[in-house]
Specification:
By secondary structure, this protein is mainly beta. It has helices spanning 2-6, 68-76; strands spanning 9-10, 27-31, 50-54, 60-66, 81-85, 95-100, 104-106, 118-122. The chain has a five-stranded mixed β-sheet. Strands 5-8-7 form a three-stranded antiparallel β-sheet, with no helix packed on it. The chain is globular.
Length: 128
């Protein structure tokens, strides 16, 4: 449903492994390096890989699951805060959240193939 509303299709095989910054809009793929400006995208979803969407207008989104309190805070504040995002829903982190790359203010620049979620600093850009 989210993919349809974002109007994205799975990355073409010929483009696999390229960084999100070099890819055309209208695609999605999976990565172990979420939130990097040049995250490489792949067609196959692997254990604990993150889904990334690049819309036709060039906006890039990290897709993941967070605690309800963090999802609410993301929608209701403009203050920077740390958030733990999971690639799959978990008992206490089961709210789907799409985080625009433009809201990510700080993150660790490394691959996370087996880590339990990633902690990133976000600065929401809501209009409340």
């Amino acid at each position: 449903m989210l993919r349809a509303s974002n109007k994205v299709k799975l990355i073409d095989e010929a483009l696999e492994g390229l960084g999100i910054d070099a890819l055309p809009g209208g695609i999605y793929g999976f990565t172990f390096s979420p939130a990097l400006h040049n995250s490489p995208l792949f067609r196959a979803k692997h254990f604990r890989s993150y889904e990334i969407h690049k819309l036709d207008d060039g906006l890039i989104y990290l897709i993941g699951f967070v605690k309800n309190v963090d999802a609410t805070r993301f929608k209701d504040t403009k203050e920077t805060f740390d958030i733990l995002i999971q690639p799959e829903p978990e008992p206490e982190a089961d709210v789907l959240l799409t985080i625009p790359y433009s809201c990510i203010s700080q993150h660790q620049q490394f691959a996370v193939p087996t880590d339990h979620g990633i902690k990133i600093s976000v600065t929401p850009q809501n209009t409340n």
